[in-house]
Amino acid sequence: MKIGIMGTGRVGLPTGVGFAALGHAVVCVDKDIAMLERLQAGKIPWVEAGLEELLRSQMGRMRFTIDAKELCGADVVLLAVPTPSRPGSDASDLSFIRQAVGEVSAAMPCPAVLAIKSTVPVGTGDVLQAKLRRKNSKLAVVSFPEFFCEGTAVRDFFSPSRLVVGVEQEWAREVMDHLLRPFADRCPLLFVSRRTAELVKHASNAFLAMKVHYANEMADLCEKTGASGADVLQAIGLDPRIGNQFLRPGPGYGGSCFPKDCRALAAMGRRWKVPLRLVRATIAGNEARLKAMVRRILSTVQTIPCPRIALLGLAFKGGTADCRESPMLAIAEGLIANGVDITVFDAAADGAKNLSMVRVRHAVDATDAATGADVVVIGTEDFYQLDLGKIRAVVRTAQIVDLRNVLDADRAKCFGFFYLPIGEKPPPNG
Description:
By secondary structure, this protein is an alpha/beta fold. 40% of the residues lie in helices and 14% in strands. It has 3 domains: 2-192, Rossmann fold; 202-283, Orthogonal Bundle (N-(1-d-carboxylethyl)-l-norvaline Dehydrogenase, domain 2); 286-420, NAD(P)-binding Rossmann-like Domain (Rossmann fold), CATH 3.40.50.720.
């Protein structure tokens, strides 16, 4: 089959490369010329395990272009363009989707499936299909939501937990069934209504965000009562009805999906007059979590004049360079607002450059960041192998606030650190 991809970002590119690896001819369309030139050279501009190597192996089956007319003759065109929050609103901005649909429609004289992988509000496909019908377009709009996790997108493509296709026309269902036949023995394949598929992605992400916030609330309760947050959450996660994924405490959720999709789902609730109280409470709780983490860090330096804080890890999670809506960026800004000097380091984070305020120094490595610091803050899971001996030798005050619980508490104490993880009763001198 000939497959078209509109948008070569963190969803579109792994999808296109994956289908090329399955033997399809793939045409990727994007407006970012610099991005396309980089991809044509076999390089990707972000961190994603295994993707660059797979891209290079599939260059013979892939084309990269700015011209949507090269999609002509495609059996399926996948839309993977951004749907950010609308400025000043929680609702999704669909301007990129509308533009992409218009370009595809103009380029496609023959019947084809237009499969939307972008996360869109329920009912979007109906609106787009109606507009296309007025133009006598032969495109069938299908909802085909993605469930990739940053850092594991290649694995998620080839070994998905499930595939969901929202389709209204029988011939479009047959096309998608043929495209996805290689996955028939790998995961459940659900054919549902278009509106159902559109809602699945928002509902999934909001539920995972709720689990993250629930873990944080239980960790807070454990700290107050003297229970072990790690043990409580482990025991909860062993219940097969609950599961242990996303049940770890931390600084709060972030990234390009959870915050945006929770807000968009809340906006859909308001539109359809369904309160969605759990979703709204999760959003409010996560915002409060960021402020609580700022207070937590400041509490360790409240008696120190002109304190210095080292932040290790700025991405929204470990294993990625993505700082979009990262809790650590919000925490850094909160510390700066309180007049604290901070030094930051994240070898992969592309958002570190956004913290260019007067009170921020960018370090070359973790030891450099910790030099002269009064507290070292672990912000992502990437620092689980931190050399505590080196860090102990350069800090001014031996304190670690571990917002990801990746270090061994006993080992940190052996090196003389006051160690403060999440979900455990603070030490007596804390």
